[in-house]
Amino acid sequence: MARLSIVIPYAGNVQKLENSLVSVLENRPEDCEVLVVLSDTYEDPYDLEDEVTFVYAPKGTDPVRCLNLGVDASSAPLLHTLWPGMQVEAGWAEQAIGHFADPEVMAVAPLLLSSGPSEAIVVAGIEYGMSGAVRFRSRGRAVESVGEEPFDVLGPIPQAGFYRKSIVQDLKRFDTRLNLLTAGVHLALAIEWLGGRAVVEPECRVLTEAGSFETAGVFRTARDAERLFWRWAPRCGWMAGSVGHLGQVFLDCFGRFPRPSMVAEILGRLVGLTSVGAHRKQLRQLARIEANRRAAAIDAPHFLKAKRGFFEKKGPVPLRRAG
Fold first, then answer.
1. Which helix (H) or strand (E) holds 226?
2. Which of 27, 145, 164, 286 has the highest CB neighbour count under 10 A?
């Protein structure tokens, strides 16, 4: 059985898909499988069926559902999600896989670099602030600025991330009610709540072409950001979080003034505000998942024994060192 499943969704850009496939097939580790989820027509001009497993989705299937279909079709205990247009270097996967020998590690973020001549950092993992803002670690900085040692982070972006499959399955995969990036942040927050860790591996490097990220419209981005915040509002405390979030919403909305997108931002926030009580339902769901994981283990793994309570947490998990 493969030890790593590499899942690549395809939605119509042949050049980006094939650029990614060439780099993966040339540099893939032993005992891995490559799955391409097709939500558009692909002619397979290079007859890759012996090297790639094609998973078929209805035409126009959204990116989050495509990733989930790849997760369902995978057979390895470790997952690597990779967006078309991303290109990998020799040894990139081995550097990440080694971290999963630690039972606390549930996800690994690669160092995602611009494919331009400067190779500036695009993202070295994500963080989620108490105001509800998603931050790309080390964005725009030189590669040397992160050093050579791995460091803790909230999680990877789903466009290029490594995950322990069991935790993704227990958490019901990526949430299809959210756009791709927000679904990845939500998964990372749930992993953190269960006591799992995510690390950035500076020697695991992925190059990204301009425009390789899936983007949602202004309305959906604003709506999903609001939904995410209210699901996790108790994480850093209601008072501090709500005040900070109000300021963040003000900046996001009026930063668009006087463009028409300001209206879409405000409407998206208002629709997302209907999720204000979602944290209660989510807490019950996470408690059930934790109980099921404990019941399935003869001796609960260390990362569950060390879990801190949802409402007892007074702030984000501290980083071991600045990235």
1. helix 218-231
2. 164
- List the structure tokens of 24: 């993966």
Report d(CA 285, CA 273) in Å as an integer: 20
Instruction: Tell me if residue 135 falls in helix, strand or coil.
Output: strand
**Distance of alpha carbon 158 from alpha carbon 110, whole angstroms:** 11
pLDDT at position 213: 66
How does strand 197-208 pair with strand 105-114? parallel
pLDDT (0 to 100) of residue 99: 96
Residue partners of 157: CB distance under 8 A and separation at least 6: 109, 112, 123, 125, 126, 136, 181, 184
What does the block give as tokens for 232? Answer: 């996790």
Q: How many CB atoms lie within 10 A of CB 184?
A: 27
Burial label, 200 (beta-carbon count in 10 A; 0-12, 13-18, 19+):
buried
For residue 151, the cross-strand partners are 200
Specify the residue for token string 């409402």: 311
- Compare 185 and 241 and report the one with higher pLDDT: 185
**How many whole angstroms separate alpha carbon 305 and alpha carbon 182?**
28
The pTM of this model reads 0.88
Termini Cα distance of the chain: 35
**Whole-number average pLDDT of the chain:** 87
Is-contact 290 308, C-beta < 8 A? no
pLDDT at 298 over 70: no
Q: Per-residue pLDDT averaged across 147-170, rounded?
A: 95
Residue 212 in this model has a pLDDT that exceeds 70: no
Which residue in 161, 149, 217, 212 sits closest to 185, CA to CA?
Answer: 161
List residues bridging with 128 in a β-sheet: 134
Q: What integer is the mean pLDDT of 72-101?
A: 94
C-alpha span between 8 and 20 (Å, rounded): 8
Amino acid type, 105 = V
Nearest to 32 by CA among 4, 71, 66, 70: 4
